[in-house]
Amino acid sequence: MGVGTKIIVATDSWHGSVEWCKAFEGSLPDTLFFPWDDSGEPVGADYAIVWRPAPTLFVRETRLRAVFNLGAGIDSLVGLPELPADLPIVRLEDAGMAEQMVEYVVYGLLRASREFSAYEAQQRAGEWSGLPPVNRSHWPVGVMGLGVIGERVARAVVRLGYPVAGWARRAREIPGAQVYVGAEQLPAFLARTRVLVNLLPLTPETDSILNRENLERLMPQAYLINVARGQHLVEQDLLDLLASGRFAGALLDVFRSEPLPQSHPFWKHPAITVTPHISAITLREDAVNQIVNKIGKLKQGLPISGRVSREHGY
Ligand code: OXD
Hints:
The protein is an alpha/beta fold. It has two domains: about 5-95 and about 280-300, Rossmann fold (3-Layer(aba) Sandwich), CATH 3.40.50.720; about 95-275, Rossmann fold. The protein has ten helices and twelve strands. It has helices at about 15-25, 55-60, 75-80, 95-115, 115-125, 150-160, 180-190, 210-215, 235-245, 285-300, and strands at about 5-10, 30-35, 45-50, 65-70, 90, 140-145, 165-170, 175-180, 195-200, 220-225, 245-250, 270-275. The protein has a seven-stranded parallel beta sheet with strand order 8-7-6-9-10-11-12. Helix 2 (about 55-60) links the parallel strand 3 and strand 4 (about 65-70). Helix 4 (about 95-115) crosses helix 6. The chain starts with a strand and ends in a 15-residue tail after the last helix. The site of oxalic acid has 4 residues, from loops. Oxalic acid binds near residues 71, 72, 73 and 282.
């Protein structure tokens, strides 16, 4: 009996591809999973499951019907010239990431508004003194990017009682939050925001959007939480705004160059907290279930969510 479906699993390392293959093994009837091997032969795969794959994947595997991305951001995929223009891309939706992102952003927000870095400095100086209590109305939060994850973050911050606004390309409703739409309303969104949370997809329009001009529009003593992509932020502009006292601090999970180079000034900056791209890690079981479910639907000719718009780049 022949094999019905072949799926190639290609991540940024051989080990990663093998591990993901094991996780998918047996999840679909009549289906074989193959780990990507840089020097291997074509397997004639029907689907690819990828995370930052080698571009040659799309040259070698010419029968692909769809590619599933093992993450929410597809910027490393859509930029590949080898990627056929008509190949459907499906990204991971939530899959356990929204909850982690909520936790991370709430941590950053409370760290800023409850002045935890000031208390850490006081502890190092052996100083016992309370700062004035937080007044949430002084800490308006602005969420850039209201996809599945951004919306969950905005809703969670609304529940904490902070003033919340969101900014997105298209209008939508989030109870308790004001939604600003499009480039025209970006200045007004920034002007009412003190804690800026970036959850935008990386596209040519959003590349370097966190630049001096936009960051200067934020309320004084602003705080940045960047959990999207390092390329959104002009890093020197943030450093300059911190040096000038215009900005209070930043919690950064993503960087232009990852791992963050040892010599980078962010490492030792007293107002910057650095984490190594861990704000929301893909959970294997959730990702497997979601992708398997979608492949099942595609095979039956049913519609699926999470299809990337090649026109918009996310
Ligand atoms: C993602 C990421 O895009 O982890 O999912 O950065």
